[in-house]
Task: structure prediction
Amino acid sequence: MTMRTAATLALMAIVAAQPVGAARDLPRDWRRVATLPDRDRLRRLRMAWADGVRLAYANGLGGSVRSQGALLDPDVALADPLPPPGRYRCRVVKLGGPQGFSARAAVPCEIAATGPVFGFSMLGAAQRTTGTLFADSDVRGVFLGSLAMADEGHVLAYGRDVNRNMAGVVERVGPSRWRIGFPYPRFEATLDVIELVPNS
Result:
């Protein structure tokens, strides 16, 4: 399966998971798609960020946090928050959790456009995040999707498994640098941040 096919199928899966009539609302308002627990998680993004940074510093890893620059600065959010369709390198940074801080190697990922919403797919990682990017404001988008493990051949549609649901805020933090911040993910961390930079 090509990366473009994976991203497009991810988008189709989230649409198919909605009740009758909701799919046509999908491009307009992420709130019609998000579960109540995920809306609550998104509201607590600042708290998760503060908790994650505090735990990293408590583990003596403040220098690692600072080395990430704008990526882990909660106050950086530039206009035009949604990355354009294309191929990217995606790197996961985790704050909080047992280690306090960890940064994984970059893996290929892609954003595919289908109408006014974008499908996002991460490939080649032990934990693969796949879902949909929604417009929200001039400086913020919203991601709704799910998490798959390396040995799984398919991705669950968003909303099918509360433990796999992923909800995050999409922001641009540099000229060609974006992030998705996931408050209180189910596994390993207080805050997950996916960094996206275009393939060079």
